[in-house]
Structure formats: C-alpha cells, structure tokens
Amino acid sequence: MHCLPRYFGPRNRRLPSLPPRHARPRAERQMLHRCPRQMTPSRFAPPPAPRTRMTSTPSSLMTNAADGTRTGTLPSLLCQSRPAARARIAGLARLRETRSTNDLLLAMPFGACHGWVILAHAQSGARGRNGRQWHSPPGAGLYLSIGWVFPGIDRSQVGPLSLRIGLVLAEVLAPWGGGRIGLKWPNDLLAGDAKLAGVLIETRAGAGDLAVVVGIGVNVRKPHLGEFAAAGSVTSLEQLAEDGGPTVETVALAVIPAIIDALATWDPADSAVWLPRWRSLDILADQWVSWIEAGVRHEGRARGPLADGALLVETIAGARQVRAGEVERLRPARAPAV
After folding, report:
1. Rounded to two decimals, what is the model's pTM?
2. In a domain, 324, yes or no
C-alpha cells in the first residue's frame, strides 16, 4: 500500500540497514511512528465475505439417497442473477446417482419438501407420465425435482399447473432450440417428432393443502440410448443449438429460477393470461390424434387445451375432453379423410 515505506516487506523478511532516524525526512519519520514494523500490506486487506449456506439436508433425504448424496450450496451465479428465486429456495441437494429425484421429495414428511430442489447426475429408475421409463444417462441431461406446497388447493385444480410448467420450460429453452421447440399436450417438449424434455407432476394431499413435486428431465447432451437414438425419437439441446449447446449447469441456472417463480406466482384462475402463448407452441393444434380411454381407442382432431388443463378433441360423435392418457399424433397416411 502507498502509505507504507518502500522498504517495508513481508513480515518475516529482515529489513535492510537504514540510515539513522534523524537523517530521514520528517514525513518518513512520522510514517514510521504510525506504522509499526510488524504491520504488512496483508494486514490491511478486508476480511473475506461470509459464505451463504443452504439449509441442511433433512435426515430423511440423506437416508433415501444413500447411493451417493452430497449437499451443496446454490451456485453464486444464481444468488446474484435471481435473488428473488434464491430467497424462495429452502435447500438444494446434488446427487451423483439416485433412483428418482421425485421419489426423494415424495418420501419427505408432508410439507417438508416445500422449496426444496434436488438434482441428480444420473437416475436409475426415473419415470415419465403413465409410468414410462425416462432414460437418464450420467451427465447427458438435467434431471431435477422441485417441491412446493399450495394451501387450500386440491388435485382437481392441478391441471393448468401442468400446462404452465411446460410453457415456462419451453420458453426458457427457446434460445437454444433454434425455433424448433414445440409443446405436446400436456407438457412434453418436442422438436419435430423427437422428444427434448418432459415434465412429471406428482401430488400428495394433507390437511387441506396439496404438496406438488415437479419432476423435469431435459436432454442437454447428445443422447446415446441405443434404439431410441437410432429411431430419432429423442433429441438434445446440443443437436438443436447452432453453437454446440449449453452445459447442464447453464441449463440448471436458467430452469430452476423460472420454475420457482412460476410455482410461487401460480394462480389456478389466471390461465387466460398465459394460455394463448401455450397454444402458439401447440404441435397438436388441428392435427388428427388418437388416445385410449377406458380400454377404447378414440380418434379426432385436436383443438387445443382448455383453461382447466383438458385437451379438447372433435370426434365424429362430438367434442370430447381428454384429461388423462397418452395422445398420439396420427401420420398423414393414417389420418381420416377430411
């Protein structure tokens, strides 16, 4: 520092021979009086800022994630860029591998999962809608679950939330999608006919409240899934982006705050605000589709989602509302003649 004499060095270095005190300039004599020899520039450095730590992991989470769990702090970039979302996060756990991040949050005591985020490097038993397996190879994608508790809401009101989460995810990933990301009812993200990401929402009810676990899987790196990759049924951000695509951490830093904000501000009655944006990305709009309901196969023309989350389909017998099941888009050769 400029306030120290130029011959002051580190603490343990011996000082060179100095001229007598009376032979030195007056200003230098005053400086020697104010700055003892044992003081060095490092002593003037400000103390390091305290590190912000997340809430400790509940013992139930540690027990259920015994296959390699380590609790980590939220990345500093998230704290700086989205402080509002950071304040809503109760804890963050990063796992090397687990069976399912959704299962870990569902196994926690009711209400304890609120605000918790769990990420996994790989999953051995991940699932999608209707119990289908979601392939989660190590490091190839973003696999996370977020828990949230809604007071005074029952399961019948969760339909619009599924659409809302899918829309938020599609808008977050849009910069890396090359304009090719679309939504397939209720919340699958596709690029053409290839699946890019999916959302699974599971619920637990108790004491008039509803605990919701939002599971999200995004293919970030090019998948190596054998027959799935060969058939072209899956794709990734690496394949869609022109610059090689983002890293898994970059996607996580974009997705987590957006989903947290969507959960914190969600209102079952505000579907009219964002539903037009969902319909603009609907890949099933005016397409011939089929689905199975009560063991019977039905076909019709999709007319888009309704405010309560159901899919409106026009059939020969009249309009029907699809609320569950897998809706498949018919190929042109299989579609009925108009």
Report:
1. 0.74
2. yes
